[in-house]
Amino acid sequence: MSTTASTSVTPDTSQALDTARHHLAAAADRLGLPDAIRRRLMLPKEQITLQLHPVLPCGKSLECTAYIIRHSDVLGPAKGGIRMSTRVSADSIAGLAMEMTWKTALIGVPFGGGKSGIACDPASLTPDEKELLIRAFARSAHRHIGPEVYVPAPDMGTGEEEMGYIRDCVSHSEGVSITRGCFVTGKPVILGGIHGRREATGKGVVHTLAAACRHLGMEISGLRVAVQGFGNVAAVAAQELYARGARIVAVADLTGGLYAEGGLDIPALQAHVRATRGLSGFAGANPINPEALFEQDCDAVIPAASGSQIHASNAGKIRARIVAEGANVPLTPEADAILNKAGVFIIPDILCNAGGVFVSYLEYAQETQREQMSLKEVEERLRERMETTFAEVLAYSIAHNLPMRAAAMDIAVGRVAEGIHARGAHP
Ligand code: NAD
Q1: Per-residue confidence band for 427, with pLDDT thresholds at 50, 70 and 90
Q2: C or N terminus of the chain, fewer CB within 10 Å?
Q3: Looking at the annotation, which residues are catalytic?
Q4: Is the Cβ–Cβ distance between 79 and 360 less than 8 Å?
Q5: Which domain holds residue 306?
Q6: Domain end marker among 293, 318, 352
Q7: Closest atom, ligand 1, to C-alpha of 233
Q8: Residue 411 lies in a domain
């Protein structure tokens, strides 16, 4: 082994755990949860730290820390994506795992909540290095994942390809071609994945945004939208909105920011990003400072990048009527309070971006039954589930005079608490 390269890690500023605990405490107060249940839900059920150090053919070793956190398995095996980012920390992954518990309970799939993180900068890795790292993760994590324990999926920095490598590692270690049940979702269709999984989160975001528009007497056609991020969730949501006649007036991510009064040509922007790996330099739009994205004049903003992007300092500058949380935990509690006070309609993350985990559940079910669902069936079931869950949360929010996030949390936390009681673990 000639050299060792530690992958860089930046301080975690996401506050994901603090924010998740803040929202849980508020729901526990409203629901009058017993102290023992409240304390149990504040902490993850299991937290595993892995040290990965795969060796490249050139002799260089990559070193980084990874986490697997299961927050709750009361309603089923933990479900939640694998994040590759320099901002991964034990606390950020614990907060995101907790969010998954509420998301699966709310969208009505028989899963609990979990999350994994690999602390590295995926953009600095070659495809071979990334594959080596994800295979090292899969080998070390094998004991902790499985259809009855924890079922991972893509998240920031990972996608279909990486899920395929995990599927391959698992079947190698088990010495089988097809595994007993579903070990990972978001795989390529050829390896037992499901049609439409890659697009499911972004399309689900748009289903909830369309439902919010109907409720508020607004039209999707002509809606002026600002989108943060241009990865899996954001680019699909932007494309879907563009196809429905909305105007994506602004987009920003780590590579730059763009504004076009008449709306961006999203298919052309996608081609530009494929060719140049970034937003900047796109003709037909004016460059903007990515920090200024949320200040743009628009009807809806979709934060679909990383956590805590809307905070006390920029929340007051938002002029949109709707915030649709494509990302997980994109608002700090302070920003949430500012926007609620201003009468902004917030579609909370555990509802807005739940389309991905819903279609992951369909993948889990089809793999268990050795079937293949058609894209048409997946899309229809996704639309129907997003719309009925939105309607359920909206009805609760009106009946109890609560913002949508509080309504969604009360329904979700209430279901998990009911599960704890039904299992007989009374405090
Ligand atoms: P991705 O890695 O495909 O894309 C992330 C995008 O966000 C990139 O365009 C990146 O440049 C941008 N970004 C990252 N940090 C940023 C910052 N500080 N400022 C501006 N832009 C930034 O990730 P993704 O899968 O699209 O996930 C995006 C968000 O959606 C995450 O919060 C993730 O947890 C959440 N989410 C993803 C899924 C899924 O199915 N992929 C499901 C539910 C929720």
Answers
A1: very low
A2: N
A3: 115
A4: yes
A5: 199-352
A6: 352
A7: 26
A8: no
Report whether residue 229 contacts ligand 1, using a CB cutoff of 6 Å: yes
CA of 235 to the centre of ligand 1 (A): 10
Are 14 and 162 within one domain?
yes
**3-class SS at 332?**
coil
Does any ligand 1 atom lie closer than 6 A to the CB of residue 154? Answer: yes
Residue of 233, 269, 294, 360 best suited for mutating to test ligand 1, as the one with most atoms within 8 Å of CB: 233
Residue 387 lies in a domain: no
Domain assignment present for 391: no
Nearest CA to ligand 1 atom 36: 327
The verdict on the CB of residue 76 being under 6 Å from ligand 1 is: no
CATH number of the domain bearing residue 33: 3.40.50.10860
Structure tokens at 316: 């007051």
Report in angstroms the alpha-carbon separations of 188 from 174, 195, 202.
20, 9, 18
Alpha carbon separation from 326 to 139, 177, 178, 390 (Å, rounded): 31, 35, 33, 14
How many structural domains comprise the chain?
2
Are 218 and 110 within one domain?
no
Tell the residue nearest (CA) to atom 27 of ligand 1. 156
Residues 339 and 229 in one domain: yes
Which of 103, 276, 306, 329 for mutating ligand 1's site (highest number of atoms within 8 Å of CB)?
Answer: 306
Q: Whose CA is nearest to atom 3 of ligand 1?
A: 231
Measure Cα distances from 20 to 91, 101, 278, 338 in Å: 11, 11, 32, 18
| Together in a domain, 34 and 65 | yes
How far away, in angstroms, is 411 Cα from ligand 1 center? Answer: 26
pLDDT, tens only, 197-226: 999 999 999 999 999 999 999 999 999 999
Q: For residue 219, what are the contacts with CB-CB under 8 A and spacing of at least 6?
A: 213
Contact (CB, 8 A) for 88 and 118 = yes
What is the pTM assigned to this prediction? Answer: 0.95
Question: Is 398 within a domain?
Answer: no
pLDDT greater than 90 at residue 335: yes
- Do 301 and 321 lie in a common domain? yes
Asked if 150 and 208 sit in the same domain, the reply is: no
Domain with residue 273: its CATH number is 3.40.50.720
